[in-house]
Design a protein that fits this description.
383 residues; alpha+beta; Nucleotidyltransferase, domain 5; Gyrase A, domain 2; 3 domains; six-stranded mixed sheet; four-stranded antiparallel sheet; 8 helices
């Protein structure tokens, strides 16, 4: 149990005191790297605990030692956890406001207070324990859970630590836990003990879900650690989506172009088919005679020695061309054939002209095939 530091009082941060200068009152800040200082038994942490610590990140421990009622020295430690145990990552003696904000912002902050004015008594002294815990306006206290101090309470007058709380509040530094106790011979070991207690007892998965100050601070630390990776992931997804969307849009446009060209070809083909059907229909109704009758009458006058090669009503006047309408010889009957006797052609002309529908018969061509010696002819009848 801990009675924390209230952000009351108007004093600024205390100055450094002049005892144990080699251990506590170091000047300035330094990055000490991954120093091989681990806690106690150096027992490896479980995978769940290790993953949670990686999510929350390092913790900051402020070791504060009072030299008298008004002056104190502060030592700042940044500690991280790996699979082998706790390690001190950075440390800073008497940090200024900028150093405090930099090293405490978004991290779990633990405070250890010792030195002048800190009184430690066994919990068996119920009179002292009762007096202290019943007067929170006068005293701030914490119970020890260290084995060597099992069953003890450490307390201090609140007026002594109020300036410290004011300094932290002015710098916007919320703290998770405050411990009072005897002055440690080595501040680094004290920082390690405070961090060990935090990672062992406070930092648990269920802490993230509890609506308590500790839970909010742990969640804030996790949010700070995840902010950049999440933003980076979102940016990556946005970039991927942009490129993928552009590619899909391009493919969609290509497909639209292909489909449009296909639809145009289909429409053009349908239009040509309609034109052909219309032309055939017009052709069928244009003549006063049925085609079969005309062809039958013309064929009936062909001599037996004549072989017809073509007999067509309104034949094509031009060869069919892709994309163009067929052109017919309007109201015309075309007769082509071969014979070995040229007089057969004259006989055929005479017979055709004797028929009323075929009397406009005209010989268009007559020639002899050099190879076979047969006579080839073409007769056109205007209907």
């Amino acid at each position: 149990m801990t009675q924390g530091l209230p952000p009351r009082g108007g004093l600024s941060g205390g100055g450094a005191i002049g005892y144990e200068p080699d251990r506590f009152a170091l000047a300035g800040c330094s990055g000490s790297g991954l120093r091989a200082r681990t806690v106690g038994r150096n027992k490896p942490y479980s995978m769940k605990r290790f993953l949670l610590q990686r999510l929350v990140g390092p913790s900051t421990v402020l070791c504060i030692r009072f030299g008298d009622a008004e002056n104190y020295a502060m030592r700042l430690f940044v500690l991280g956890l790996d699979r082998s145990g706790l390690r001190i990552l950075r440390e800073c003696a008497d940090p200024d406001a900028d150093a405090l904000k930099k090293e405490c912002s978004g991290r779990p902050v633990l405070i250890s207070v010792s030195g002048y004015g800190i009184v430690t008594k066994p919990t068996e002294d119920t009179a002292i324990v009762g007096k202290v815990t019943s007067d929170p306006e006068t005293f701030a206290w914490s119970f020890s859970d260290e084995k060597e101090d099992s069953g003890s309470i450490s307390f201090v007058r609140r007026e002594q630590v109020e300036p410290l709380g004011q300094r932290l509040a002015e710098n916007g530094i919320p703290f998770m836990d405050v411990r009072y106790g005897r002055a440690a011979a080595d501040p680094e070991q004290e920082a390690l003990r405070q961090a060990e207690r935090f990672y062992r007892d406070t930092l648990k998965w269920r802490t993230l879900l509890r609506p308590i100050p500790e839970g909010r601070m742990v969640a804030k630390a996790a949010e700070r650690r995840l902010r950049l990776p999440v933003l980076g992931l979102m940016l990556l997804l946005l970039v991927v989506n942009t490129f993928a969307s552009g590619s899909l849009q391009e493919r969609r446009a290509q497909q639209r172009t292909v489909l449009s060209a296909r639809e145009k070809r289909q429409d053009a083909s349908q239009a040509r088919s309609e034109q052909r059907r219309a032309a055939v229909a017009a052709f069928s109704h244009r003549l006063p005679y049925r085609h079969a009758l005309l062809l039958d009458r013309a064929a009936s006058h062909v001599p037996l020695s004549v072989t017809l090669t073509s007999l067509a009503v309104q034949p094509l006047s031009k060869t069919l061309e892709e994309g163009k309408d067929p052109v017919f010889a309007s109201e015309t009957l075309s007769i082509r054939g071969v014979t070995n006797d040229a007089s057969d052609v004259s006989e055929l002309m005479t017979e055709l002209r004797s028929e009323p529908p075929l009397h406009e018969a005209r010989l268009e061509g007559l020639k002899q095939n050099r190879e076979s010696g047969a006579t080839e002819f073409k007769i056109t009848v205007a209907l």
